[in-house]
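ligand=benzoic acid
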Amino acid sequence: MFLTRPSIIRGITAFTNQVSARALHSTQIAMAPIKVGDKLPVADLFEDSPANKVNICELTAGKKVVLFAVPGAFTPGCSKTHLPGYVQNADKLKSEGVGEIVCVSVNDPYVMAAWGAQHNTKGKIRMLADPNGAFIKALDLGTNLPPLGGFRSKRFSMVINDSKVEELNVEPDGTGLSCSLADKIKIKK
Ligand code: BEZ
């Protein structure tokens, strides 16, 4: 059989497409959202700058941590209600045995730092950035929010005890302001 150059190229392209489609398919991992009792995934978050990594498993080892995640820094619901509630309740939560309160968003660390400064979070809440969403993807608690640019975190709160999830409150619609608010957190004795 005599093959022309274009037909050889078409054949190679078709073969390559098939292989890469299979490769893509075989690397898809069935995910399920993290649940009570699960250990947190290993992930780095960033505080104040990209040079300042915070390993979430190290941060939560051997203590109770309240972590809440928001769809976006500076957005109205997060700025007027979600973050201020945790600022107001920080001393109470700490008096109940919480070692750290952590706010996470799929934003860059400079944005998180500026948002924290605006809300006087220093000494109360650690403002941790998940710039490419790796932590939120590993929890399988992300959502697509085109008005905010695409992949973001669902709004949720979590009580973590020694790196394990002890309580989890994910907003049913992903962004509402109900079960994940600070005054809904119940710290187990
Ligand atoms: C908010 O105001 O919290 C918000 C705005 C847009 C998308 C998601 C949340």
